[in-house]
Amino acid sequence: MSERPAPRARPQRRRRRRRERRADATGHPRDALAAAKGYDLVAIDARSPQPASLLSLGCLNDRIINDGQTDVLVVVSVGEGISCGDANRILVPINGLEHSMAAIDVAACLARHNEAEVVLFHVARPLVATWADSTHNGKNDQALTAITGVMRGLAKQIGGQGLRVTHRVRTSDDPGAEILREARRDDYQMIVLGATTRGATAHLALGATTQEVLTQEHTPIVLLVSH
Known about the structure:
Layout: H1 10-25, H2 29-36, E1 41-47, H3 59-67, E2 71-77, E3 89-93, H4 98-114, E4 117-124, H5 136-159, E5 164-171, H6 175-185, E6 190-196, H7 208-216, E7 221-226
Parallel strand pairs: 1-2, 3-4, 3-6, 4-5, 6-7
Antiparallel strand pairs: 2-7
């Protein structure tokens, strides 16, 4: 009886080629975008961007956010990533729009993991007075009271899920600066932001407030970009 021929090494070569294709996909925007198709959410990490007139989280990340059709969760930090286990208090700036409200769900998931406190934070822009409007201050007070009531109800709703939730409302013409002041006023270990991309451009266009917080705050940020 003749001996069987030795098995060929073809499977090893196939595995090696598959590993090489995965490595290439992590560095080429086209491959990364193709790999993201069919998913509801793509998670990436980025270093904190430097202050500049044009926002960028890195060439590959910018392409994934701008050109993809999938929501993107970006973990932004100045170091080698963040640990959810270290987050005892999470700041969630919201402006009432759908993409910012979606950030509450992300913060709730993170807080539930570590029994952290969630602080919902809203910056109300003061009403602009006219020379003939003698009731201006009263209208501002009424608007602030209404907003505070909405925030209180939202905190109660989220707190009903077994989470520790508080709310804070500030009045300012500069929401970004007010968010930065709040982040430095208290001991926050994480900020969760919601944003939406303004379309496929040569740079990231996530809004002036989001850009201000990303470039000037060193607290780890979890950014949810909705399409």
